[in-house]
Write a structure and sequence with these properties.
The chain is an alpha/beta fold. It has 23 helices and 21 strands. Helix 9 packs antiparallel against helix 11 and helix 10 runs parallel beside helix 11. It is globular. 40% of the residues are buried. The C terminus is likely disordered. Bound molecules: adenosine-5'-diphosphate and magnesium ion (MG). Magnesium ion binds next to helix 11.
Length: 695
Amino acid sequence: MPSLLEHAIETLPGIGPRTGAALRERGYQTVGDLLWLMPKTYDDQRHPTPIHELQVGQYAVAEGTVRVTRRFPRGRHMGFEARLEPDKAPEGSGYRELKVVWFRAVPGLSQRFEVGSSVRVAGRVNEYRGVATIAHPEVLSEGAEGAIEPRYPEIPGVRRKTLRRAVRAAVDRAAHEVPDLIPKELRAEVGVGAVGEALASIHVPTPALLAGDSGGGHPAQHRLALEELVLWELALRLRRARERGGTAQPFAPEPAVSAACAAFPFELTAAQRTAVAALSSSLNRDEPMRRLLQGDVGCGKTAVALVACAQVVAGGGQAALLAPTELLADQHAATLQPTAEKLALRLGVFTGALSSDRRRAMLDRMATGAVDVVVGTHALLSGEIRFANLGLVVVDEQHRFGVAQRLRLGTRGSSDRPHLLVMTATPIPRSLALVLYAGLDLTTIDAKPPGRLPVTTQMLPRKNRQKVFRQLERALDADGRAYVVCPAISSSDELIGVDHAYAEMKEHFGTDVVGQIHGRLSGDERRALMRDFADGTLKVLVGTTVLEVGVDVPAANIILVEQADRFGLAQLHQLRGRVGRAGQHSGCLLSYTEPLSPEAEARLQALCESDDGFRLAETDLELRGPGHLFGYRQSGTSGLQFANLTKDGELLRRAGDLAERIVRSDPSLTAPRHAIARAAVRRWERFEAVREDAG
Ligand code: ADP
Ligand code: MG
């Protein structure tokens, strides 16, 4: 026997073939579907408001005596209006009458609005030529006890009252059948109710629900949010279990780790040492490491990664270090070279810019094990690449990599899977990190090397050019270097391009000391430029966001960002991380053209006030919602309808506990009582897959 939830929508009272078709078009096919149609708000029809107290914009129930009615033509239809006056003489000021109007009359209005009769109507109050007006009000039955009515989203072809009645009937008939992800015993144990009960109390509201509605929290809403988060957490755990499978080659930490730590020209910070300890013990296990290393710009993740590489190489493995851009790959290779040499690591570079001879030679060295650590771009992920014994993959600046690429990782080499280390400087709150990087353990470097000064950050309207140049000059006088970042290569009506800024800087500072860098230059040209900039031949480097990640020129002490409002908060923080890396005083100038949107202003302001990437990430979340972190275009598309990841941290934790208990008892959800969870997770994953493709 099919569940009552599966009954066709047309079995509900008031739903004929036409209304049924309209609902089906919106995806509501069954009684069960309709239970998940959530009210937008509630109309409180309990207390009539005297006509003279009506307020424009308010949802109100009003009573009055019909004084006069009128039908009027409107387009091809007839409209209807009635004027009501208060039953009692109004006191004080305020409206003397209420006009109710239908621009397209519905049958039966003249009978209901007989002159002299008393009526009760409800709707949103407007004012038209000084008269309080409600257009298309709901006509309530006189004398009946007023109720709190859910207001559903409008569905064309479905009348408001019909919809209410149908949902109400669906609740009465089938809410008790709505399946729960959390099995009954577990619900009883932790004291949460059934989902069906929560749905029922959302559709059949009580005064308490209405009170909670404005305060943002009612048990029923929490219950649905919890359900959603449990589903999310379950999906994550299953995915994690799947990604975790397989074996890996274990690599003993000592003596390689101590030797590597001692090879740097600096002492590792305590935070770096903690990270090294976490990594080295994971690498020593025969299950593949899957770890996310996050830490603010400049906290020294590269050094930690190199220690891990050394550990793997000492045990006979190879390591691949993936950077998001060729510029960064080259730079990593260059900065790692001295330490690698000390440790006798054979370092190679593999990017798309290699000549075919050198490319072939490098492929050969990788395949025969003649190179230990290969630094490259995503070119390293292409299918033809073979390693003799790939033991570790390090992905730097993960946020620049697409999700699809992320998934293809970790399958190269022998039958063992390589260990995986993902690094990001876009810090995110822990709860979100766990969600975003499902299946990865999390290590955070929470302190920077000593002696770093915060970068002095200011907002400057673009019209204030003199001030900008004065600051640039002062920075260069201190034997510094300046970056100038533009939102585009070529200028347009809207955007200041590298071309424009380059010309402007040359005019001001002289042709010889200004360079420009962007994605259209060849790898060789870019390398030469970076070299000139590092050794001081060039003083000013104008570029696009190719400068964003990881570029490391210690002398750089000022960065000017043109049209800073065009960049995201995380991106600006990254850019700012390019300066002051040698511990000197440094500055960041956020140039903008007025007017600035309030949101952009808040972003730039936040940047001026804080140098802490984690704090900024929280701010960013508040300003934009979590959607962007997931790589989806619009915000708010985390796929969650009831829960708010930014605000429901405590609920997320509870959901995590529940999910943990569910999968602990039944790791792949095969038990019959987990059928619902299994089906829901499958649905969820299909949805995710579609979204990732789209992203
Ligand atoms: P990020 O975490 O942003 O990738 P990097 O690894 O590029 O940071 O390191 C930033 C700079 O700090 C580099 O110039 C690096 O040599 C330096 N550095 C890293 N660790 C230390 C340390 N413990 N003490 C001093 N300088 C360090
Ligand atoms: Mg880095």
